[in-house]
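step=encode ok
step=design start
structure_in=
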């Protein structure tokens, strides 16, 4: 079937309901228009339309694509897997890719998190972690511990269970009657620093507020969930690792599980394979997704401590963790994840990314001089800045302007961020910075 840019857009608008989108904006014209980008194929860090125009993927296709589009090594691994086993149910069956992936991920935690439970997407991983914690306390004879804490402006998914710990009104306000609301505690977002304060100070203030909450209500709290180091949907809100160290100690003191949602910030994005490593701690439950398959296939994983696993290990089926979906631990997705881990190891990616992070820092430094830019910041392979604007249409105006420069940059509110694949060159990173500057000039 042949397509052109125009026919693909027209047919998509007629038949596809796109996510996180007010569809009317795709039909609008002028300043209100939200472009719909037709993609014919991808190669490396680039996406191509049907006319051959290319766009540098500055956001890794919603933070998932680690090693470029059409990566030959991941392609080869998937082709080989297709010849042996595409899918089998994981209830009562097992297969080599899921066993190997579970073992390798546990090893990356130093064995601290020794059991892997599988799902398809980040929100599902959040729900699994919440259910595991809730059910753990029931099985442990403490059913009163059934509430959850999340950080202000935190985001952990948009399914009904995940919305309980998502503090973004845009996503949850319409569904509030369906949601069993969790409690929010202060964010350690370093942008909140008062004059003379450091990010460490902000982290300690937030931890002090957490301690007040746990001291008063810890007997009823099951878990605290955090996005370590960077709160993505909050506008790439970055915090010092000190918060994680203090939160870990407080969770231990008050018998509360610490859930690290590394769906976006894991897989090397912050400079270490897991973001929590930079605090020298381990969570009780760890959620992974997005880049774990290199951006190829849906897969999410919850890793847990042995003490949590053992609380479900019993003769009584009702004490088991009764959660599943048809594609749990899909062999193709697991094989893509294994190929992704192979690339990390064979190419010394974390070391190479330190150089790429320096390129990002150079691009950010040039942009920081712009009079409308606030809070330039970086954590590993994530760089961001805020734009002083009250225009609610800024995100789509900036998106259009960046596309005109040949770059895909999709702001979160008034926050522009760079989160490129780990295959970008120095020239491509420079293009991201120059395109952002040109887009600001257009506006």
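sequence_out=
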């Amino acid at each position: 079937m042949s397509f052109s840019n125009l026919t693909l857009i027209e047919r998509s608008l007629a038949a596809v309901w796109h996510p996180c989108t007010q569809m009317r904006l795709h039909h609008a014209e002028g300043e209100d228009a939200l472009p719909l980008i037709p993609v014919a194929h991808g190669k490396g860090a680039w996406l191509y339309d049907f006319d051959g125009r290319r766009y540098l993927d500055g956001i890794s296709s919603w933070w998932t694509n680690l090693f470029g589009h059409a990566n030959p090594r991941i392609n080869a691994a998937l082709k080989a897997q297709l010849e042996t086993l595409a899918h089998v149910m994981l209830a009562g069956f097992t297969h080599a890719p899921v066993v190997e992936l579970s073992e390798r991920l546990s090893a990356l935690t130093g064995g601290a998190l020794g059991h892997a439970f599988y799902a398809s997407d980040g929100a599902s991983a959040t729900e699994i972690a919440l259910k595991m914690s809730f059910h753990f306390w029931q099985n442990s004879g403490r059913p009163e511990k059934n509430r959850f804490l999340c950080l202000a402006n935190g985001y952990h998914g948009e399914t009904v269970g995940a919305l309980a710990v998502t503090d973004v009104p845009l996503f949850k306000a319409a569904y509030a009657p369906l949601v069993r609301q969790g409690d929010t505690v202060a964010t350690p977002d370093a942008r909140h620093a008062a004059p003379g304060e450091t990010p460490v100070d902000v982290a300690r203030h937030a931890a002090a507020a957490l301690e007040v909450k746990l001291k008063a209500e810890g007997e009823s709290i099951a878990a605290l969930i955090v996005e370590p180091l960077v709160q993505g949907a909050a506008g790439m809100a970055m915090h010092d690792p000190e918060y994680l160290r203090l939160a870990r100690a407080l969770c231990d003191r008050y018998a509360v599980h610490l859930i690290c949602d590394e769906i976006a910030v894991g897989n090397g994005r912050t400079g270490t394979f897991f973001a929590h490593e930079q605090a020298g701690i381990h969570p009780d439950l760890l959620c992974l997704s997005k880049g774990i398959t290199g951006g190829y296939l849906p897969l999410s994983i919850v890793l847990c401590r042995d003490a949590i696993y053992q609380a479900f290990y019993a003769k009584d089926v009702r004490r088991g963790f009764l959660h599943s979906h048809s594609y749990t631990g899909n062999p193709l997705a697991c094989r893509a994840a294994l190929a992704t881990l192979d690339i990390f190891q064979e190419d010394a990616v974390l070391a190479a990314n330190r150089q790429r992070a320096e390129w990002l820092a150079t691009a950010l430094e040039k942009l920081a001089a712009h009079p409308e830019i606030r809070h330039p910041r970086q954590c590993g392979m994530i760089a961001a800045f805020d734009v002083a604007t009250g225009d609610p249409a800024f995100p789509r105006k900036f998106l259009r302007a960046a596309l005109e420069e040949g770059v895909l940059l999709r702001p979160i509110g008034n926050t522009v961020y760079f989160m490129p694949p780990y295959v970008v060159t120095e020239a491509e990173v420079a293009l991201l910075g120059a395109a952002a500057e040109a887009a600001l000039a257009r506006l």
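step=design ok
step=annotate ok -> The mean pLDDT is 96.
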